[in-house]
Each structure stands twice: as C-alpha cells, then as structure tokens.
C-alpha cells in the first residue's frame, strides 16, 4: 500500500513536469493558435445540411489509394512468392532480384523513378503511378511475409501429404495454405498500416491525398501547426481502425479453427 | 568457366521459367514499343559532370542517417526502459508516445516537428545560421549555413521518429529474456538499473540484432524524406541536377543506384555481423 502511494506520487510528478514543459514550449512562443478556423475543413453545416470538408475528400482519396494498393500488393506478393518457391532457376533469380532491388531503395526515389521515367513512356497518370509504386514497394515485403509463413509450416506436413499420394499443387492448396494463412493476418495488418503511412509520400507527385490537401491548405491559410496536427490525428485514427479490423479478423480465424 | 557455359546450355527450362521470361519480355517490349514515339536523348556525360553535387548529397544523407540512428537508439532505449518499468507515469508516457508516432506517416511527423523545432526551439537555444558560419567544427559536422540548421532539425525529427520503432524492438527483446535472470541478479544484490544494464540488455540486444539491423536500413531509407523540407540530401541533389540540366532519366537512375549500393552493402555488412554475433553470444 505504502509503495503504491509512493509510485502514484512519482508518476504524477513526472506527468506534471512533462505537461509543464510542453505547455511552456507551446505557450511562450509567439505562435497564434487558431483552432477555431480548422473545424470547417472537417465538415461544414450549411443550409440545414452537413457538407464534407477538404480533409474528408483527402481522406477518401487516401483510403482509395491504400485499399487498392493492398489488393495489388497482395497479388504481386503471391506471384513473387510463387516465383521464389518454383523449381525454375530463372524464376527464383527474378524473384530475388525484385525483392533486393525494391527493398534497398527508398519509396521516394522509386516514385520519382516511375513518375519521371516509366509514366511518360507508358502514359500513366499520377494517381495510377502512385498506386502502382506503393503496391510494387509493399509487394516485396508481402512476398517475404508469405515466404516466411509457408516456410514456418512444418516440413513434415509436406512429406506426410506426399506420402498420402497428394500432388504438389493440392498439398499447397489443401494442406499448407490453410495453416499458413493464420500466420499471415497479423503481418498483413502491419503491411496495410505501412501502406497507409507510405501513401503520404505520394503527395510529392501532387496526388490529391490527405497530405497534399494539408499542404495546399497551409499555403492558403498559414495555419501550419493546427492543420498538421489535425492531419496527424486523422492518419492516427485511420491506422487505428486498420489495426482494430486486423484484430477482429484474427479473432474470427482463431474461432473458426 | 567451361562448366558454367555447359550448365547454361544444358539448362532445362521449368514451366515457371518460361512464364517469367514471357512476362519480362512482354513488359520490356511494351516499354520499347511505347518509347518509339517518346524520343529521349540519352546523355550521360552532363549529369556525371555534377558528381560533386551527388557526393555532397550522399555525405548529407549519411550525416542524417548517423544523427537519426544516434538519437533513435538512445531515445528508443530509454523509451523501452520506460515501458517495462513499474512506474505508471513513465509507462503511460512511453505507451502514448510510441502509439502516436508509430501510427502517423513519417512525412507528417517531419512536417510537424521540423516546423516546431526549427521555428520555435532553435531561436530559443540561439542556434542561428551565423553560428554555423563562425564555427568550423559545426560546418564540418552539419554542413554550411542555413542548411546546417535544417539538417540538425531534420536529423532530430528522424531520430525521434525512429526511436518509437527501436523502442518497440528493444522492449520485445527485453521481455523475451526469462524472468529468472531478473530474480537471480536481484538476489545477487544488483539494483534495478544495474540489472537492466549489466544482465538484461546484453542478452536482449544480441537477440534483437537482426530486427535492429532491418530497422536501421529503414531509417536510412526514411532519410530521403528530409529532402522535402529542403535538406540537401541525395534526393535533393537529384532534383537540383534535374532542374539545372534537364537530364531527368539519368539523374534519377544515378540517385537510385547510389541508394541501392548504400543499402545493399549495409545489408551485407549487417548479415556478416549477425553471423559473428550468433557465433559469439547465442
């Protein structure tokens, strides 16, 4: 009991000091906080109706980019993982090359490379370029995750199903994948949160996502801190939603097995 | 040599090889066919003449990387110790910080804190561009003039950002050390900090080495974002070369190759170290 009280005193002292330091930092400078003028970018009430603000439009675009690149990156990841597992050496080599190249260059550089070199040649617009770069980048990570999940299934499972006379394809489909998919869900939520975070980099090629909306609004209104904090909050809530959805799916799959 | 050629000639094509090659040939031929209309004059000599600019960019990228690693590891270690401590206040602080930072994009974090640090904190501390002009040591460490202050605040921001990730990795490793180790060392008369420092951390750090290495490569890749707040790193020098010479393709290819070489050698180096550590400690 005595120890508990001591601990509460310690922790409250620490928290009060931290809040005091933050307060000092934020208040004594000359930054004019104008939170009241930020709310209208979330939603506006006019003519008896609620109208979505700029932030909501940006968020819509971000969600669209993230969801489509989750699907595409999963597809690319599966293809690369299959190529990595296949018996052909050229396919293996290609998969290895792809993964090493993509994992060892920054997304920003990849976006510039694609946007300035491939996009004008193939005639892609910036929105599609953003989606393709994000999914190519994250596809390499997804393929590594899938490879890890399949490798972590016991080798005995392969051998047992071979000895039962099941061929390679059916073994993979009926025996290995159901076991591997359970291991995939947690890393895939991680990947989708990563995609959400990387999707902000797409703003450098002027795709109208949440970050670009924020930049435009700041250059219009000079409310730098308020708008960036609001955008950080929006990103934080989006990725929390992703994490919650991932946890629900994980629980569901555990129930079914 | 003869054997290798023989192996290549005798190679039996698996179905996956055929599919891969077909897809690659299709992709490359599409690009070639569409680039017939798109005339671009390759000119490697002009951007290669700007190699000094690229080298300055590389130097600044490395500066940013080392700064962010230094701040990230030290701050991340203290955050990890906050999170495993019994003190509720410290625990809450660590949890809130890590949860916040891990869930927002690095770009947004950089924009918030770069503005905050460079516009509000640096003037208070008296870090001005003139200071960088006067001290050669500062110039050597952080580059020249206005860009020096930019580089420092970008490095601090990146370090604060990475620290949350390092903290989670280190915390996981510390948790994985069996509790018997704590009890034994407390029983031998070590106090809490000594236990952490002398018994737990050496074991934990040897265990989490691979993920720390992976995270530090991610940190190196994240430094590219600093170019968006006009720190003169590699990407920024790429933009400069593009705007001054109009050789778009070559400049970006050079930047990508430099990043690739940097990260790839680092990966190989970390793998080599990992093997050494495995032989020694585990």
Rg from Cα of chain A: 24 Å
CATH class category name of chain A: Mainly Alpha
Point out poorly predicted stretches of chain B.
none
Order of helices and strands of chain A: HEEHHHHHHHH
Instruction: Classify the helix fraction of chain A into a percent range.
Output: over 70%
Q: Helical element count of chain B? A: 14
Describe the overall structure:
- The complex is a heterodimer of chains A (257) and B (282).
- By secondary structure, chain A is mostly helical.
- Chain A has helices spanning 2-27, 54-85, 89-103, 107-122, 126-152, 155-163, 168-198, 210-221, 224-256, and strands at 43-46, 49-52.
- Chain A has a single domain (54-256), classed as MetI-like (MetI-like fold, Orthogonal Bundle).
- Chain A is built from 9 helices and 2 strands.
- Chain A has a two-stranded antiparallel sheet.
- In chain A, β1 (43-46) and β2 (49-52) form a beta hairpin.
- Chain A starts with a helix and ends with a helix.
- The mean pLDDT of chain A is 86.
- Chain B folds into 2 domains: 2-37; 45-281, MetI-like (MetI-like fold, Orthogonal Bundle).
- Chain B has helices spanning 2-9, 15-37, 45-49, 51-84, 88-102, 106-125, 129-134, 136-142, 145-176, 179-187, 192-207, 209-222, 234-245, 248-281.
- Chain B starts with a helix and ends with a helix.
- With 282 residues, chain B is mainly α.
- Classes of the chains: A mainly alpha (257), B mainly alpha (282).
- Chains A and B meet through α1, α3, α4, α7 and α9 of A and α2, α5, α6, α12 and α13 of B.
């Amino acid at each position: 009991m005595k120890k508990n009280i001591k601990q509460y005193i310690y922790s409250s002292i620490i928290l009060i000091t931290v809040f005091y330091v933050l307060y000092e930092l934020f208040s004594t400078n000359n930054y004019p906080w104008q939170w009241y003028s930020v709310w209208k970018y979330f939603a506006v009430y006019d003519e008896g109706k609620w109208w979505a603000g700029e932030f909501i439009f940006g968020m819509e675009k971000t969600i669209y980019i993230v969801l489509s690149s989750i699907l595409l990156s999963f597809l690319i990841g599966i293809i690369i993982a299959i190529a990595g597992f296949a018996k052909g050496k050229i396919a293996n080599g290609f998969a290895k090359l792809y993964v090493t190249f993509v994992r060892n260059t920054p997304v920003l550089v990849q976006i510039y490379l694609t946007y300035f070199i491939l996009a004008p040649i193939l005639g892609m617009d910036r929105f599609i370029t953003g989606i393709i770069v994000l999914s190519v980048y994250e596809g390499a990570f997804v393929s590594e995750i899938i490879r890890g999940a399949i490798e972590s299934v016991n080798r005995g499972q392969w051998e047992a199903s071979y000895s039962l006379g099941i061929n390679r394809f059916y073994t993979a489909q009926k025996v290995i994948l159901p076991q591997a998919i359970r291991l995939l869900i947690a890393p895939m939520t991680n990947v989708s949160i990563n995609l959400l975070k990387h999707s902000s980099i797409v703003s450098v090629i002027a795709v109208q996502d949440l970050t670009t909306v924020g930049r435009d609004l700041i250059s219009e209104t000079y409310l730098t801190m308020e708008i960036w904090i609001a955008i950080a909050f929006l990103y934080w809530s989006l990725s929390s939603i992703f994490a919650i959805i991932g946890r629900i799916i994980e629980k569901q799959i555990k129930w079914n097995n | 040599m003869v054997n290798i050629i023989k192996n290549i000639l005798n190679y039996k094509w698996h179905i996956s090889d055929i599919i891969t090659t077909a897809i690659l040939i299709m992709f490359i031929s599409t690009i070639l066919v569409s680039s017939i209309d798109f005339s671009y004059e390759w000119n490697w000599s002009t951007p290669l003449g700007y190699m000094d600019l690229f080298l300055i960019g590389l130097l600044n990228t490395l500066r940013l990387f080392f700064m962010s690693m230094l701040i990230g590891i030290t701050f991340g270690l203290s955050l990890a110790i906050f999170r495993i401590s019994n003190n509720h206040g410290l625990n809450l602080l660590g949890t809130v910080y890590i949860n916040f930072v891990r869930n927002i994009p690095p770009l947004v974090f950089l924009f918030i804190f770069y503005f905050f640090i460079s516009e509000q904190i640096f003037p208070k501390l008296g870090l001005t561009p003139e200071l960088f002009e006067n001290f050669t040591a500062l110039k050597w460490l952080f580059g020249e003039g206005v860009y020096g202050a930019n580089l420092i605040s970008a490095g601090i921001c990146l370090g604060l950002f990475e620290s949350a990730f390092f903290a989670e990795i280190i915390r996981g490793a510390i948790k994985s050390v069996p509790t018997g180790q704590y009890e034994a060392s407390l029983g031998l008369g070590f106090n809490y900090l000594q236990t952490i420092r002398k018994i737990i951390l050496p074991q934990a750090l040897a265990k989490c080495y691979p993920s720390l290495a992976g995270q530090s490569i991610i940190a190196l890749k994240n430094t590219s974002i600093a170019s968006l707040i006009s720190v003169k790193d590699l990407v920024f020098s790429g933009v400069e070369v593009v705007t001054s010479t109009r050789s778009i393709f070559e400049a970006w290819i050079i930047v990508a190759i430099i990043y690739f070489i940097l990260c790839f050698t680092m990966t190989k180096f970390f793998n080599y170290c990992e093997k050494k550590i495995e032989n020694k400690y585990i």
